[in-house]
Design goal:
heterodimer; A: alpha/beta; ABC transporter transmembrane region fold; Rossmann fold; six-stranded mixed sheet; four-stranded antiparallel sheet; 20 helices; 12 strands; B: alpha/beta; 4 domains; 17 helices; elongated; disordered N terminus
């Protein structure tokens, strides 16, 4: 994991090195100040040497200024290094996600990926800055100050050594214990928020069943649990401060007593004693810092792991070594094809499919939800790879094509389709970046989208909101079809893409396809029999297998599933949301 | 309406503005004082003790050299007794100080966590009492952010900023006084440096907050882009759009890098600069003090011991000042959060002036009376306000709407002159296109919204007189969005009636045709449903929602597009369970698919908030109107 993340420092190595260098410079100069103070007292003040006082004073001032400069530079480089690191992480994840296959995408939820790219990266960014700035500063500070005290008086300094060892053991103990509690606290905290969210989105159910009190009780219980856990964890943490102060005070007293003894015996000067006392705070504070970093790091560890997970995810689909860039025609062949989404699942989603589609044919696919219609067509554009058997397009195995070429020629209008924020033209040009406005209008006419776009005040320049929320479901579907048409594909797949379009318009779109793009192979998946009944052949799917293939009339006679659905739909198939126009 | 929620939002949104910081702070303080007055007083006392003892400690260092060590140096046989006593005395101070520190930090945990728990519960309790209108008009992400962001920043303020500022203030005052006592000129130098530090803090802090603002905006933009692209990831793949989206992303990422770099740079420069300016102040005092100690005597003169302790005061003076200046930003943030919390708490709760209640009833001598046991027979208890007389009206499920007008806002009416007369046990269907006002009618029946004009009567009682909770309890509801809770299937069904036994739950599941698929799940009825039913199919979730309504066993039912997103064959199965459920109950069915409503006692066709046709399936076909044309596909 550290290796994966470490590679992303690229481009900010100089800053990442300079930051600790400046931080160490800051610490060292800062540590010299009390040292100079000692000579100032002993050789200057005690001897009344004004010159010495001023000169030492100026040296001290210089040290402070260097420390100031170094500290500021450390901040500059540290921020740049960590912001750059964060940028690289986001970019790395985004680029890797773009290389994901559908199977990879299925593994992560949208919210999960967004969290990884935002909150998790911010966590890691902050920790990285901490590492660069404090991780070096605190230990160096500790060592420098310890060295100084040993230089002054080794016997007195051993008091600090004892204090440091004592505090480290206690701190380590507390941190390990508290860390355990805090992991639990954060989990409970997330649960609590999740339950609030559930309540907000289900408020109608809560109110309809008059369950407000029930929910209140549930929430109070959860809040109380969180409270108890928080108290436990924080009780541990607050014991750190008094322990720390007690150790500091204990050291001060011990140093004072033994120092006084030594001074009386002329083994120590008053100046040295003062300096020893000054270092006291410095030593113990840096020890605290080390502990603090440790806590921070363990907290961001989970984030780092999640990020590394995305970065290390390898696409399950790769381009072949010598890819084929030519798709000769729109014929499709399935030969003994089986498919499962996961190797572990016992029942395959598609089972031993054999199907041959001629170039230019119109194929309808019918079947209930869960009958694997979508899984079947997804294999054509190599959105997934078949687990067994071969899928051929234009007579060649889909795995031999260059992925981009194949997907350009096989245009899928997905069931769960998305428009992006931008104008209608922007969205259409996803199909073909260089399409002229005329070509776009042409495609929209084919998809019966032109008629409603013309009614918008801004026409083709109308802005689509994120997720396409400002157009109706039927309009969105027609725009998505137009977008797919702009690719000028050899195979066009409509995966339940007209479900929100009214029957009449649906029929007009299909008629336009037949007349305007006769050479394109068209595959239409639909719940609605009327959408597929005019196809050259209709494939009926049931439980991951082909139940029947034939024309509408043949199937009505031979296929009970098809007939049943047809009967259920012909009588009373009217639907208020699918009447003309929307 | 439900936006992206949870942690992603934590760092988003522009920097808050606090409209009325004083008022908000006062209210917040009141909230804490309400339950923790004694605690807080103790905390303050402990803080004072702790600061006092640490000042004593610093003073001791001065006495150590001047009063004990220096005199001993001149003694031929040094007498350690005074030193021993001094050390014992200061040790006592230290112990008391440490104890006080421990005590106040520990008490503060209870104050903070207790207040936060109470606040969370208050917010939640109040949220549950808000009318549906609030949830319909406020983005869910905003409501969530009150829990995730605002309470959190508030916690930091109460637990850290408040005690720190208090102890810093006391430290500053007591140290300042001590410094003045030791040496006026040195104090003036220190104050001069403090002033310089404050100027620097203000300048750099201003720059940093400007860039932080920019960072939030850029972060928001990039988050939006990520979210959009992640949602459309499959479309990106299908259109080979990967390179293009990486390009666009990199542009945004670069902008974010710059604002984030600058924001963090200025913010993190503050600490070393202030710290080192503190060192400069220390050095300047050391030089001046050295000069004063050697060459000046009299009022401005200073002894060596005094100089040493002054210098340590100097250090402990700059520290709290830096700390306080760093706390300001977080206090502003927390107050802005508190303001949003209070806004939520000040939202008016759902009003309920109903006084007709629903009670268990039994028939004694041909007359209905109230009883405590669950008889399966329900009655409305109508206490007449003028006379105090009590009437018991049996719950039957008759519903009449009389010339009802309604609009979500006063400007735009959604329903006009709606008349409906549903007899007990009848099935009434509403059909019409999206936006025709079908769901609105059901929102009125269970009083999620109140009507502007006209009357709705339930079993002959104006529904405004019925207590809302009792009205809703008498109506079962199955919505298009099934909204299951993350709990076991058993508990999800039991949600309909909390005291239902396991057997009753299973019976309800059987009625809903759900029993067989539930038993096929690895843990059966104990299967835990993941966040909003992700591990179940749409149809299965629908069946659970039906079971939930079935276990409630209400006399009247509302089915709002309950089967609209399942395929024809699955729908048939669900339909079967729905028919079982509807038997003997007054039912309101909303649908845009006509196949589901054919066997209704009355079908009401709505268009733009008006009833345009009504009647049975056969009658409507005869009318050859809108319904006819849709059902047959022929123009009328």
């Amino acid at each position: 994991m550290i290796k994966t993340l470490g590679r992303r420092i690229k481009g900010y190595v100089r800053e990442s090195v300079l930051t600790p260098v400046f931080m160490i410079l800051e610490v060292v100069t800062e540590t010299i100040i009390p040292m100079l103070m000692a000579t100032m007292i002993d050789d200057g003040i005690n001897k009344g040497d004004m010159n010495h006082i001023i000169i030492t004073g100026l040296w001290m001032l210089l040290c402070a200024l260097i420390a100031l400069f170094a500290g500021a530079m450390g901040a500059v480089y540290g921020s740049k290094a960590s912001a750059g690191f964060a940028k690289n992480l986001r970019q790395g994840m985004f680029e890797n996600i773009q290389s994901f296959s559908f199977a990879n995408i299925d593994k992560y939820s949208t919210a999960g990926l967004v969290t990884r790219m935002t909150t998790d990266v911010t966590n890691v960014q902050n920790s990285y800055m901490m590492i660069l700035r404090i991780c070096f500063r605190a230990p160096v500070n500790l060592i420098a100050a310890m060295t100084m005290t040993f230089l002054i008086n080794a016997r007195l300094a051993s008091i600090y050594l004892i204090a440091v060892v004592f505090l480290s053991i206690v701190l380590a103990f507390i941190i390990i214990r508290a860390n355990k509690y805090f992991t639990e606290v954060f989990k409970r905290y997330d649960d609590l928020n999740a339950s609030v969210q559930e309540n907000v989105s289900s408020i109608r159910v809560v109110k309809a069943f008059v369950r407000e009190e029930h929910e209140n009780k549930k929430f109070s219980r959860a809040a109380n649990n969180l409270y108890n856990l928080f108290i436990k964890a924080e009780k541990l943490i607050v014991s750190v401060t008094p322990l720390m102060t007690l150790t500091v005070y204990g050291s001060v007293i011990a140093i004072s007593w033994f120092g006084a003894l030594m001074i009386v015996n002329s083994e120590l000067t008053t100046g040295e004693l003062t300096t020893m006392l000054t270092y006291c705070m410095q030593i113990l504070m840096s020890l605290m810092m080390v502990g603090f970093i440790f806590v921070m790091l363990t907290m961001s560890m989970a984030s780092a792991q999640r990020i590394a997970g995305v970065l290390n995810e390898k696409s399950t689909l790769t381009n072949p070594e010598n890819p084929d860039y030519d798709v000769p025609d729109g014929s499709i062949d399935f030969e003994n094809v089986s498919f499962s989404y996961s190797e572990k699942s016992e029942r395959p989603v598609l089972n031993n499919i054999n199907l041959h589609i001629k170039s230019g044919e119109t194929i309808g696919i019918a079947g209930g939800t869960g009958s694997s219609k979508t899984s079947l067509v997804n294999l054509i554009g190599r959105l997934y790879d078949a687990s067994e058997g071969t899928v051929r397009v234009g007579g060649k195995d889909v795995r031999s094509y260059d992925l981009e070429t194949l997907r350009d020629k096989v245009s899928v209008v997905l069931q769960k389709n998305v428009l992006f924020s931008g104008t209608i033209l922007d969205n259409l040009r996803w199909g073909n970046e260089n399409a002229t406005e005329e070509e776009c209008i042409e495609a929209c006419k084919l998809a019966c989208a032109d008629e409603f776009i013309q009614t918008f005040p801004d026409g083709y320049n109308t802005r689509i909101e994120q997720g396409g929320t400002n157009v109706s479901g039927g309009q969105k579907q027609r725009l998505c079809i137009a977008r797919a048409l702009l690719k000028k594909p050899k195979i066009l797949i409509l995966d339940d893409s007209t479900s929100a379009v009214d029957t009449a318009t649906d029929a007009r779109i299909r008629r336009a396809f037949a007349e305007e793009i006769p050479d394109t192979t068209k595959i239409i998946i639909s719940q609605r029999i009327s959408s597929v009944e005019n196809a050259d052949r209709i494939v009926v799917m049931e439980n991951g297998a082909i139940n029947a293939v034939g024309t509408h009339d043949e199937l009505l006679k031979t296929c009970p599933i098809y007939r049943e659905t047809y009967v259920a739909q012909t009588e009373g198939s009217g639907d208020f949301d699918k009447k003309g126009g929307n | 309406m439900a936006g992206p929620m949870g942690h992603g939002r934590r760092n988003m949104g522009p920097r808050p503005k606090v409209k009325n910081p004083g008022q908000t702070f006062k209210r917040l303080l009141g909230l804490i004082l309400k339950n923790y007055k004694f605690h807080l007083i103790t905390v303050f006392v402990c803080i004072i003790i702790s600061v006092f003892s640490s000042v004593q400690g610093t003073l001791f260092i001065r006495n150590l050299i001047d009063d004990y060590i220096v005199p001993m140096l001149s003694q031929p046989a040094p007498d350690f007794t005074p030193l021993i006593f001094a050390i014992l005395r200061v040790a006592a101070f230290y112990l008391v100080g440490a104890a006080a520190t421990y005590a106040y930090s520990k008490i503060m945990i209870y104050v903070t966590q207790g207040t936060m728990r109470d606040l969370r519960c208050d917010i939640f309790r109040h949220m549950e009492s808000l009318p549906i209108k609030y949830f319909d008009t406020h983005p869910h992400g905003d409501i969530m952010s009150v829990y995730t962001n605002d309470v959190d920043t508030l916690r930091q303020m109460v637990s850290q900023s408040m005690p720190q500022i208090f102890s810093s203030a006391i430290t500053i005052v007591s140290v300042l006084v001590s410094m003045f006592i030791i040496s006026v000129p040195l104090t003036l130098i220190t104050l001069g440096m403090v002033f310089a530090m404050m100027v620097v803090t203000k300048t750099i802090g201003g720059k940093s907050s400007k860039y932080f603002l920019a960072q939030q905006v850029d972060l928001g933009k990039e988050n939006g882009y990520i979210e959009e692209m992640m949602q459309g990831q499959k479309v990106v793949k299908v259109f080979n759009h990967e390179k293009k989206s990486i390009e666009e992303f990199n542009e945004l990422n670069e902008t974010l890098f710059h604002s984030s770099y600058n924001a963090n740079m200025f913010a993190s420069m503050l600490m070393p600069i202030n710290g080192q300016m503190g060192n400069v102040s220390y050095v300047l005092c050391a030089i001046a003090g050295g000069v004063l100690a050697t060459s000046v005597s009299g009022f401005f003169g200073i002894s060596l011991g005094s100089l040493v302790s002054f210098l340590s005061f100097n250090k402990s003076f700059s520290q709290p000042i830096t700390q306080v200046s760093q706390q300001f930003n977080s206090i502003i943030m927390a107050l802005a959060g508190a303001e949003r919390i209070f806004t939520l708490l000040d939202e008016p709760s759902e009003e309920d002036n109903g006084y007709v209640t629903l009670v268990n009833a039994k028939t004694v001598d041909g007359k209905l009376t109230e009883t405590d046991e669950r008889t399966g027979l329900w009655a409305w208890k109508h206490t007449h306000q003028a006379t105090g007389e009590v009437d018991y009206i049996p719950l039957r499920g008759a519903l009449v709407m009389d010339d009802v007008d309604f609009g979500y806002t006063d400007e735009k009416m959604v329903l006009h002159n709606v008349d409906i007369d549903a007899k007990p046990g009848q099935k009434i269907a509403f059909v019409g296109s999206t936006g025709a006002g079908k769901t609105t009618i059901t929102n009125l029946i269970n009083r999620f919204y109140d009507i502007q004009d006209g009357k709705i009567r339930y079993d002959g009682i104006n529904i405004n007189k019925i207590r809302k909770s009792d009205l809703r309890r008498s109506l079962g509801i199955v919505l298009q969005e099934t909204n299951l809770f993350s709990d076991t299937i058993m508990e999800n069904i039991r949600y309909g009636r909390l005291d239902a036994t396991d057997e009753e739950v299973i019976a309800a599941a059987k009625l809903a045709n759900a029993d067989s698929f539930i038993r096929q799940l690895p843990d059966g009825y104990n299967t835990v449903i993941k966040a909003d039913g992700g591990n179940l199919s749409q149809g299965q979730r629908q069946m659970l929602a039906i079971a939930r309504a079935a276990v409630a066993d209400p006399p009247a039912l509302i089915l709002d597009e309950a089967t609209s997103s399942i395929d024809t064959r699955t729908e048939r199965m669900v339909q079967e369970s729905m028919d079982k459920l509807m038997k003997g109950r007054t039912t309101f069915v909303i649908a845009h698919r006509l196949s589901t409503v054919r066997n209704s006692d009355c079908i009401i066709v709505l268009e733009q908030g008006r009833i345009i046709e009504r009647g049975t399936h056969e009658q409507l076909l005869e009318q050859k109107g809108k319904y006819y044309s849709l059902y047959t596909g022929k123009a009328s």
